Amino acid sequence: MRDLSGVFKAYDVRGVVGEQIDADLVRAVGAAFARLVGGPAVVIGHDMRDSSPGLAAAFAEGVNAEGVDVVNIGLASTDMLYFASGSLDLPGAMFTASHNPAKYNGIKLCRAGAAPVGQDTGLDTVRAEVEAGTAVQHTGEPGRVEDRDLLKGYAAHLRTLVDLSGIRPLKVVVDAGNGMGGHTVPVVFDGLPLAVTPMYFELDGNFPNHEANPLDPKNIVDLQAKVREVGADIGIAFDGDADRCFVVDENGDPVSPSAITALVAVRELAKDPGGTVIHNLITSHAVPEIVREHGGTPVRTRVGHSFIKQEMATTGAIFGGEHSAHYYFRDFWRADTGMLASMHVLAALGEQDGPLSELTSGYNRYAASGEINSTVEDQAGRLAAIKQEFGGREGVELDELDGLTVQLPGGAWFNLRASNTEPLLRLNVEAADADAVAALRDEVLAVVRA
Predict the structure, then answer these.
(1) Prior bond of 40 cis (ω within 30°)
(2) Which residues form the Alpha-D-phosphohexomutase C-terminal domain (predicted)?
(3) Is 85 annotated as catalytic?
């Protein structure tokens, strides 16, 4: 029996095209997914990678073989696929490897209404059937493919959620990273009081200018320079499949995803007083503080979109944010959308007269290290050593919701957690100022890397 453990991840299917993923594999995945979700149809979208159209077509063949129809929306951002799944009330498949290099591709799956499909919610079932070589079980007529263009509908829906028509004119630089933002931004922003300077809008899955991962500082250098050069009010960068956005202010300085989470949370709470806001345990402690100050209820979760979406469903949360620049909205089927988050920031900026740096300063209360990776063979052993090192100290609180979080007296804290796919430990530190962050970071790393 085939072993696909290296391709089926916690939340998606992903690997190197031609080595780990090919048309035969995704055809089998399509058939198994169709059996999992049943009819009447599955909606399919794909990004701009060279391999995406062919893989999407093979997946559609597998779906059709089980007698299930396909709605093909063609080129799409991941959040546009979620819009299709939500608005059409159909399960969906998005072909993308997000910010991974050109040789990779993958499939993000969801049930009707953009409900996530992960290991515990159907992905393991699909994997088991593909590994076993389960034959097509449908004996009647094959399904059909219908092509539909939902880009304008997607844009119109977003504009019902955030009204930008009345804001002051803004100069905006957008770096699409040769990804799907280059396809969606021109339509979503069309006719709004935004003077957009586009960067790398040409769809190119080989990413000729830089990796489409704006969380890596080297990938926003061009954006920062262009914002300063043209005197823009704001810079926005999207990742490859445009489900994440990253923001820089008028000085070209990055605005942390935690600050964006807090800003959007305040706006959503103004519409829905007393609502619940989800944040993962690596976002700044400023986020739950600000949520409470504005009458909301913060709920802390593990890192990862399946945990955020599940907690949103359980609590009826209005919004959720992660340190990785994923932002989730109840009014967008609890799915993550970088575009909608960027529109909230533009609205907040354009509804007042001050610069973005001033607007976001109130959401930046502490200093942070960012995520620091250490290659460690014995992850459990190093985590145990940190627990022993800090656990006996007076006033220290520990929790193991996701890895190990250590809360120190005076407000400083850190989280150390293992990667699911690599021999890495990931460290995040927050404290009152940069010096305190550096001291705590060095103390933890001395044990981790001993």
Answers:
(1) yes
(2) 371-446
(3) no
State the pTM of this model.
0.95
Residue 38 CB neighbours (<10 A)? 12
The three-point CA angle 115-183-247 to 5° equals 75
Rounded to whole angstroms, the Cα distance separating 105 from 126 reads 18
* Fold category of 367-448 in CATH: TATA-Binding Protein (3.30.310)
Q: How far apart are CA 23 and CA 228, in angstroms?
A: 45
Virtual torsion, Cα 415, 303, 340, 360, nearest 10 deg: -10
Instruction: Report pLDDT for 419.
Output: 85
- Mean pLDDT (whole number) for 298-302: 96
Q: Domain 13-149 is of which CATH architecture?
A: 3-Layer(aba) Sandwich (3.40)
User: Measured between alpha carbons, how far is 131 from 32 in angstroms, rounded to an integer?
Assistant: 11
Domain ranges of the chain: 13-149, 153-251, 257-361, 367-448
What span, in angstroms and rounded, lies between the C-alpha atoms of 342 and 324? 14
**309 Cβ partners below 8 Å, 6+ apart?**
115, 116, 320, 328, 334, 335
**Alpha-carbon torsion, ordered 378, 384, 386, 391, to 10 deg:** 180
Instruction: Give the fold, CATH level 3, of 257-361.
Output: Alpha-D-Glucose-1,6-Bisphosphate; Chain A, domain 3 (3.40.120)
Predicted confidence band of residue 428 (pLDDT cuts 50, 70, 90): very high
Say how many C-beta atoms besides its own lie within 10 A of residue 220's C-beta: 23
DSSP string, 110-148: EEGGGEE--GGGTHHHHHHHHHHTPPP---SPPP-EEE-
- Segment (H or E) for 344: helix 338-350
CA dist 94 and 242 (Å) reads 12
Tokens (6 digits) for 165: 């028509």
Alpha helices in 133-256 (DSSP H): 151-161, 181-188, 221-230
Predicted confidence at residue 436, as pLDDT, reads: 98
- The superfamily in CATH containing domain 153-251 is Alpha-D-Glucose-1,6-Bisphosphate, subunit A, domain 3 (3.40.120.10)
CA 243, 266, 329, 405 dihedral sign is positive
Q: Give the model's confidence band at 11: pLDDT under 50 very low, under 70 low, under 90 confident, else very high.
A: confident
446: which residues sit within 8 A by CB, 6+ positions away?
none
Kindly state the percentage of the chain with pLDDT values over 90: 93
Of 51, 77, 85, 98, catalytic:
98
Copy the structure tokens of residue 301: 């979760």
Is the predicted pLDDT of residue 270 greater than 90, yes or no? yes
Q: Which DSSP letter does residue 101 get? A: -
**257-361 matches 13-149 in CATH topology:** yes
